[in-house]
Amino acid sequence: MSIKNIQRLKRFGIFQDHTNSNAKDFGKYNLFYGWNGSGKSTLSGLFRCVENKSTSSKFPSSEFSISVDTGTPITQASVANSDLNIYTFNQDFIDENISWNSIVKSILLVDKKKIEEREKLEKLKKEQEVDSKAYGIEAEVIMKLDSAVSKFGTDSARHMKTSLQSIDTTDSYYLNYDKRKFGKFIEDHFEESKSEDSLLDDQQIVELTNAAKPDQKSPITFNQQSINQYIFTKAKERLDDLLKTSVVSQTIQRLVEHGDIKSWVETGLDLHKRHDTNQCEYCGNTITEERTKQLEAHFNNDYKAFQTRLKGADGWLAGQYIQSPTLPATSDPASFMGQA
Description:
10% strand; alpha+beta; disordered C terminus; 4-stranded antiparallel beta sheet; 49% helix
């Protein structure tokens, strides 16, 4: 498909109402020449419309009709669907596809897509420069904050260590306190540290500070006691004698298993004998003779005598213990505060 001639041009630059009357059809090679302003560039703009398959952006109300060898002319209404392929090199092409600012070492960039990409690259470079400066400012602020936090941790740990150095204690945790331990404490209690409220009020801080101050008290003295060999030998003899003792009793298993019930029943049995009654003072029912015999068989004289010996042995052994010294009251100024 090729162009035969331009039949009509209306409101297209210099051509306000041109119609083809006597001009010959185009040949294989065609030359347009004339004075400046005679319409050469305007005609190249028309061919550019055909190339881009669009109407003219410079002359939006223009009309044109171009004859082609297929018979159907190309007009402003049908140019978008035209199958004619032509290429135009004019000022519009230069403006759109040549970037004179991108010449590097005698290389001229001639590509519309590449020019747009290069312009985008230049824009991104400028944005990157702005972002880099902003990043540098923020990084410097963060570095100062990190330094301040580090100094706060060091100062706080040093203050705590110094405050507790005077306390005489075997716990070396706070005596070797440092920024690392302080930071770990803050990390473990991060949520609590967000609160603006103090965990301790001023009065509590004063009291705890005073309590931590060293306050030398009078020493507590006591006589050291020891158990001699005679006491050990005598205790062994008495224990051996008790362990060899056997008591025959018709036991009631429930009383054996439950010491509290046994004590209650034994006391009740003695009370009923002492008051000579078989009426249960708890439930009001009559205690049968058979039940009384069962209980007496369990709590017989041998059993009671053995219990008495056990209590006596327990009291004697308790009397041989080393007695702890009597400590002064906490209010006594001669006592150790918080220590025993």
